[in-house]
Amino acid sequence: MYTSRMTTWITVLVAYALSLATSAFAGTQGSTLFPKPGSPSKLYTLKQDISGPGFYAFFKFEAIEDPTHGRVQYVDEPTAIRENLTFATPDTFILRADHKTVLTPTSPGRKSVRIISRDEFKTHIAIFDVRHMPEGCATWPAIWELYPTNWPSGGEIDIIEGVNNQAANQATIHTTSGCSMPPSSNPASNRTQLGSDTQNKCDWEVNYNAGCGVSFPKSGPPTFGPAFNKAGGGWFVLERTPTVMKIWFWSRNDPTVPAEVKSKYSAVVNPSTYGIPYAYFPNTQCEFNKYFKENNLVINLTLCGDWAGGDDVWKQTGCPAPSCNAFVETNPAAFADAFFDFANIRIYEQPFDLGIYPKRHVEGRRKALSHNLGVKEIH
Ligand SMILES: *[C@@H]1O[C@H](CO)[C@@H](O)[C@H](O)[C@H]1NC(C)=O
Ligand SMILES: *[C@@H]1O[C@H](CO)[C@@H](O)[C@H](O)[C@H]1NC(C)=O
Ligand SMILES: *[C@@H]1O[C@H](CO)[C@@H](O)[C@H](O)[C@H]1NC(C)=O
Predict the structure, then answer these.
(1) Do 304 and 336 belong to one domain?
(2) Is 39 left (phi over 0), alpha (psi -120 to 50) or beta?
(3) Who is most buried in 2, 14, 81, 137, counting CB within 10 A?
(4) Among residues 314, 181, 168, which one has the least CA distance to residue 245?
(5) Best-predicted range by mean pLDDT among 186-190, 229-233, 313-317, 349-353?
(6) pLDDT-wise least confident of 125-134, 267-276, 353-362
(7) Residue 351 scores a pLDDT above 70
């Protein structure tokens, strides 16, 4: 263990030094080595590399009632494995809804999976290398982060979300009252992003918890649903700092994807080189330290429910059957493509954190994790 850690540190330090040299050479970054007090360093180092069986160590299964009233029954880990609703090889993790069982209107929902990370994160980068996401009528897949106690007191950040094969991804933040986003249509807000803001009050009590959403463009690289899958998926990247949240996306064959995003072996990443994000959430009208605590990562696949199954939403989709629930009950085969296929998820944090947050590492949980194979922990 000791030697492998040493090697990791040497790799990280060499990469850090190289990266400093490169940015100094490019002359664009100023001095990263001596950042201004209070300004976060831009380099992040690999904390968790989650691939294949590593998903079982990093996440726990939540066999809970769907809080969004979907026509699903979330199962525990043994059930998911037994029924092949989750499946891992060294470089693949599949998470799916059942696609075999015909249900009756009174039976429990279609079996599906919701997983939540054991670890929690504040300032971090999360890179999601997704080959396939659940598609089809009634599906409502999501990859997101939240503070699980007393929702939404510690915030919610939705990175990938959408329903019923909608054309483009939507990223959203949800908070308690008092947090909003400046309209990106106002140039003075400096909110430069590729997506368009839908509404800008993040307060969950406004507009039926619509949140501050950003719709990704409908033209250009496909970010959601069947077109995303057909393109082989792609990379979603979240950066969360005390002052800004940004979400980028690159489609599988996009030649401009940064090499460090593409390679699962990147020890260090520097998002200041990634260009204009799809979604940009600044802290100018929202004190992030107050509205966002340490968040857990969640992946869930519900069917119908408050959004996907809403009467208006369902009618607009062109999906058959009188209602979303009836569709789920009677058409198991329609869910054959309702699955996530992950190449990996990587989490990066700042080892040279300047202490804007008091760092709260959950040592007990980390120790509990470290005996599990599959998650590479780097200290
Ligand atoms: C699924 O994810 C979305 C995140 O956007 C969340 O709003 C919803 O409550 C989640 N549903 C379940 C059942 O976990
Ligand atoms: C389980 O699912 C995986 C991924 O879809 C598939 O390759 C495998 O054949 C399935 N196993 C069984 C026993 O059905
Ligand atoms: C926008 O950017 C300009 C130039 O950097 C800066 O002076 C101004 O304060 C910024 N406005 C906001 C709302 O952040």
Answers:
(1) yes
(2) beta
(3) 137
(4) 181
(5) 229-233
(6) 353-362
(7) no
Question: Which pTM value belongs to this model?
Answer: 0.84
The single residue of 62, 145, 161, 329 carrying the catalytic annotation is: 161
Place of tokens 């360093």: 41
User: Phi and psi for 356 in degrees, rounded to 5?
Assistant: -65, -40
Query: Relative to the CA of 92, which ligand 2 atom is closest?
Result: 4
Same domain, 52 and 172: yes
CA distances from 330 to 278, 315, 323, 339, 367 (A): 37, 18, 11, 19, 45
CB–CB of 212/219 below 8 Å?
Answer: no
- Provide mean pLDDT across the span 80-102: 98
CB 71 within 8 A of CB 108: no
Tokens of 110: 């279609």
CA distances to 192, 211, 285 from 189, rounded to whole Å, are 8, 19, 10
Residue type, 314: W
Among all bound ligands, the one having the nearest atom to the CA of 283 is 3
Residue 211 CA to ligand 2 centre (angstroms): 37
Question: What are 142-172's pLDDT values in tens digits?
Answer: 999 999 999 999 999 999 998 888 889 999 9
Query: So what's the pLDDT on residue 39?
Result: 46
- Please give the tally of structural domains in the chain: 2
Q: Any catalytic annotation for residue 294? A: no
